[in-house]
Amino acid sequence: MNTTTTPSGSAPRLTRILLLPVLIVLALFAAACGNDDDTQPAQPAQPEQTAEPAATTAPSEPDAPEEPDASDAADGEDAAPQPEEPAEADEQIGGEVNLYNWTDYISEDLLARFSDETGIKVNLSNYDSNETMLATLAAGATGYDVIVPSDYIIPLLIDQDLIQPIDAHAMENAAHIDPAFLDPYFDVGRVYTAPYLYGTTGLAVDTSQVPDPPDSWAEFFAVPEGSHGSIGMMNDQVEVVHAVLRAVGAEPCSTDPGDYALAEELLDGFKSAVSVINSDGIIERMAAGENSIHMEWNGAAYRSSLENPDLVYVYPSDGLTLWQDNFAVPTGAPNFDQALVFINWMMDPANIAEATNWNAYGNAIVGSDAYVDTDLASSPMVVPGSQELSYAAPVESCPIEAIDLYDRLWTSFRS
Amino acid sequence: MRVGTRWLASPALGFIAFMVGGPMVVIVWYSLRTRGPGGVGVGDGLTVDAYERLVVTEDFAGNVGFDSTYLEVMWSSILLAAATMLVALAVGFPTAVWISNRPRHLQPLLVLAVTIPFWTSILVRTYAWIVILRETGPLASGFDAVGIDLPRMLNTRGATLVGMVYTFLPFMVLPIYAAAERFDHRIAEAGLDLGATPAVVLRKIVWPSVRPGVVAGCLLVFIPAIGAFLQPELLGGGRSLMIANLIQQQFGASRNWPFGSALAILLLVVVTVVLVVARRAAREARVVLS
Amino acid sequence: MTGQADTRRYPGIGPAARLAFAFLYAPLAVVVAYSFNSGPIVSRWEGFSLVWYREVLERSDVRDAVWVSLRVAVAASAAGTALALLAALGIVAMVRRGSPLAVGFLSTPLLVPEIVTAVGTLSFFVLLDFERGMTTLVLAHTAFCIPFALLPIRARLAELDPAVFEAASDLGASGFRLFRRVTLPLLVPGIVSGALLAFIISLDDYLISAFVAGPTSTTLPIFLFGLIRRGASPLINAVSTLLLLVTVAVLTASYITGKWRKPK
Question: Which residues in chain A touch residue B72, judged by CB atoms under 8 angstroms apart?
Answer without folding.
Answer: 415
